[in-house]
Amino acid sequence: MARVSNRFLFQLHGWFSLPVWVLFSFVCLTGTVAVMSHEFAWLTNENIRAVNPDNRPAQSVAESVATVKKTFPDADVTGVSVRESYMAHEVMFTATGKPFAIAYVNPYSGAIQEVNDGVTFIGFMRTLHGWLYFPWHGSYSLGYYLVSLMSVVMLGALITGLLVFKKFWQAYRNPKIRSHQGPRTLTADLHKLAGVWSIWFMVIMSATGLWYLIQSVMWHADIEVDPWPAQLDAQSLPVSSHNTPTMPVSLAQAITKAENTFDNFQTSYIMMPEHNRDTYKLYGGGNNPFYDGASFQLAVNPWNGEITQTITPQNMNALQTIMHIADPLHFGTIGGIWTKLLWFVFGLILSGMSVSGFIMWYLRLAKARTASRKATAARLQEA
């Protein structure tokens, strides 16, 4: 078997990184910020904080929805997001003059602290990182494909980098940073050292990114991993003389159903019925940190309170399991704020590595051009 030269491996490593280094750096950097987007939003906007100076018990999500409906009588609440305990409930609704708005309700004081009818920082960063604000055409977005394809670039750069850097494990015991041998040597040492210490992180990012790529292909092919709750049978709906009869099952009762069905159910997102044949859709997490906040799903009939669909980690298939563990691994939420900080630091390192890789390529190219000019000048003199 022919032996592959280090020169070829180095060139291959460069081709996995350099042609798309600007996009790759941008995706890494926006993802790094997206990891801490909740915390950055909390720091910069006091209106989304759930401050509790009087140590009051938190009100329920249903009470936050009732507060919004009381403040905006014509409000049509479409959903609720429940984030970390130090952040306000986000009640999404439409009303006169507000085609889409988010009310930030402090669960401890019960007050609406802000109504945002524009783009939020969290939404902006997640969208920018997730699909670069490219439009969605039905079930696919070119931007989503571009971002998820960066996982192939990262995996290729990781594999070729390890092949180029022989005995890379020695860098754990004897890290080498030669700061007095010029910028090219220093940059190379920093790049190698950062790469060795980031192997575990790049493996996680590559694996989860490849899943997002597979997921985008399935979306494009209209393959649904998580089955959407079926619409209610029209024959089962109550007959009323009114055009829009009131649904007898309240949101509070639907939440109680979920809490009684799942142990340690922690509500993360709720979708309200959009029409008479729709259901309450409740999403939440449990005690396993490796599953996301939508790993427990419940659909409740708003007319009779019956549960029409449940999904839990216990009855998930293989694809559903991968889908619900990918986000906690990709965004580092498995250990709360501490793992998010760790992911943030290594995200910055990975972003820096893409830049240092370009610098190494540029310095190598400049050196080669200088040597070529000198060789050409020497040949001319001899002639």
How is this structure best described in words?
It is elongated, with a radius of gyration of 26 Å. It has 12 helices and 10 strands. The protein has an 8-stranded antiparallel β-sheet, covered by helices on one side. A hairpin with a 6-residue loop joins strand 3 (98-105) and strand 4 (112-116). The mean pLDDT is 90. It is α+β, with helices and mostly antiparallel strands and 383 residues long. Helix 2 (21-35) runs antiparallel to helix 5 and helix 6 (142-164) packs antiparallel against helix 9. Helices cover 50% and strands 14% of the residues. The chain has helices at residues 6-17, 21-35, 37-44, 61-71, 121-131, 142-164, 170-173, 183-197, 199-220, 251-261, 318-331, 337-382; strands spanning 76-81, 89-95, 98-105, 112-116, 136-137, 140-141, 266-271, 280-285, 296-300, 307-311.
